[in-house]
Design a protein that fits this description.
InterPro entries: F-box_plant. This is FBD domain-containing protein. This protein is an alpha/beta fold. The chain is built from five helices and three strands; from the N terminus they run H-E-H-E-H-H-E-H. It has one domain: FAD/NAD(P)-binding domain. Helices cover 36% and strands 10% of the residues. It has a three-stranded parallel beta sheet with strand order 1-2-3, covered by helices on one side. Helix 2 links the parallel strand 1 and strand 2. The radius of gyration is 19 Å and the shape is extended. The two termini are 35 Å apart.
C-alpha cells in the first residue's frame, strides 16, 4: 500500500473518504426463491456470508447447491496451479455447513455435488451468461 501522499497523487490514487455501507433492510424477505445454485464455491468468508444473507431472506428456500468450479479438462489442469478452497472432505463440508447455518432459522438442505453429478436443471444455469 502506498502511503506517501505525493506518490498517491502522482499515481492518481483516491483519498480515503470514510464511506460506510449500510446493510440491506433486515426485514426484507424473498418468497419465490426455492433453489440456490452456486458454481465455483469457495469456503471463503465473503461467500459464506453471502449464502447466509440469502438463506435469511429467502423464506421458502429448500435447497442450496454449492458446486466446485466447472471447467473443461484443460482448464482444470491449469486451474490446479491456483489454490482453491472448496470443501472436499466430509469434515470440511460439515464445518462449512455449520458456518453457513449457525444462528439461521432455515430448513434448506445444503449439497456439495460433484461436477459429474451435475443435475440437468442446473446445466442451463451453468450456461447462462
Amino acid at each position: 500500500m502506498v502511503t506517501d501522499e505525493e506518490k498517491r497523487k502522482e499515481r492518481l490514487f483516491s483519498e480515503e473518504k470514510g464511506v460506510e455501507w449500510e446493510s440491506s433492510a433486515s426485514d426484507f424477505h424473498h418468497e419465490n426463491l426455492v433453489t440456490l445454485v452456486i458454481f465455483g464455491f469457495q469456503s471463503e468468508e465473503y461467500m459464506v456470508s453471502y449464502i447466509r444473507r440469502v438463506m435469511e431472506a429467502a423464506t421458502n428456500l429448500e435447497e442450496v447447491f454449492l458446486y466446485h468450479r466447472l471447467a473443461c479438462r484443460k482448464c482444470l489442469d491449469n486451474s490446479r496451479k491456483q489454490p482453491f478452497k472448496f470443501p472436499w472432505t466430509k469434515r470440511q463440508r460439515l464445518s462449512v455447513k455449520k458456518r453457513i447455518t449457525d444462528g439461521i432459522d432455515s430448513f434448506a438442505i445444503i449439497h456439495f455435488p460433484t461436477t459429474a453429478g451435475l443435475r440437468s436443471d442446473h446445466v442451463a444455469k451453468k450456461n447462462y451468461p
